[in-house]
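RECORD TYPE: inverse folding
INPUT: structure tokens
STRUCTURE:
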């Protein structure tokens, strides 16, 4: 393969040592399995992007636990916050990331070979919904304008599009139209990848392929009927592997859903 591989994981929801998420899910064990799976991927991803909700309550002890779990990862990693994170505690836990500013939104621009990764902080302190503040939108426009010939892959925690799951659509990215207006001005933007919903979802946004990455631990139930009670469910965990392939002016991006875990069957050849 000639190109770049970007692994995306999201919504890790790490609790303090010994605690379960929602008193039922061992998210630390789930992350341990996820890290082991990432380390075994061949060819190796060039980087791992975490799109928010690294921890469950934004507590320093949760980030300390998270860092111990991630110490086993044999790949470079970058991360942005989600609505369960706390910016200052996360900055202390990840002080060496190339943040666009010392305070406020934790936006990142990460050059990766022939392309750029642009990570946007959509977290709003004390709220579950997401929004991109004015400084972030201005920074995004300037960043995309700076290298018009380099393809760019964008990542953000909150999806700016509806999924049909009503209780999640009530807490999505509230100013998606502002984001779309900027993306429509920059042809080098090739993909938008998000998290937050704990399900694999694919659509288009601002005429770009757009996706939601599943989580390594639990899912939001597929509640497409408004009369269903919002609920969580344990389903097969997964991650996304974004393959940027050379070709044409900006290349092409293909997103693969990668299940996490061991399965009874092994690769076999058709007769």
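DESIGNED SEQUENCE:
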């Amino acid at each position: 393969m000639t190109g770049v591989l970007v692994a995306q994981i999201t919504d890790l929801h790490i609790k303090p040592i010994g605690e379960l998420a929602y008193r039922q899910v061992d998210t630390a064990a789930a992350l341990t399995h996820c890290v082991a799976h990432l380390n075994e991927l061949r060819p190796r991803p060039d980087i791992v992007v975490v799109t928010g909700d690294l921890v469950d309550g934004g507590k320093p002890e949760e980030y300390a636990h998270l860092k111990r779990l991630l110490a086993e990862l044999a790949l470079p990693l970058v991360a942005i916050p989600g609505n369960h994170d706390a910016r200052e505690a996360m900055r202390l836990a990840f002080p060496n990331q190339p943040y666009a500013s010392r305070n406020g939104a934790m936006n990142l621009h990460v050059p990766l070979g022939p392309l750029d990764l642009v990570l946007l902080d959509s977290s709003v302190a004390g709220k579950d919904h997401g929004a991109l503040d004015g400084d972030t939108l201005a920074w995004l426009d300037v960043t995309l304008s700076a290298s018009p010939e380099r393809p760019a892959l964008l990542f953000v925690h909150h999806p700016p599009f509806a999924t049909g799951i009503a209780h999640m659509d009530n807490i999505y990215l509230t100013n998606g139209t502002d984001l779309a207006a900027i993306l429509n001005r920059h042809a080098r933007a090739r993909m938008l990848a998000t998290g937050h919903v704990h399900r694999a979802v694919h659509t288009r946004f601002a005429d770009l392929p757009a996706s939601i990455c599943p989580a390594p631990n639990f899912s939001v139930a597929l509640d497409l009927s408004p009369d269903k009670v919002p609920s969580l469910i344990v389903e097969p965990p997964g991650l996304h592997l974004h393959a940027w392939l050379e070709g044409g002016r900006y290349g092409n991006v293909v997103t693969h859903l990668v299940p996490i875990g061991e399965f009874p069957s092994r690769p076999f050849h058709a007769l």
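NOTES: The chain has a mean pLDDT of 96.
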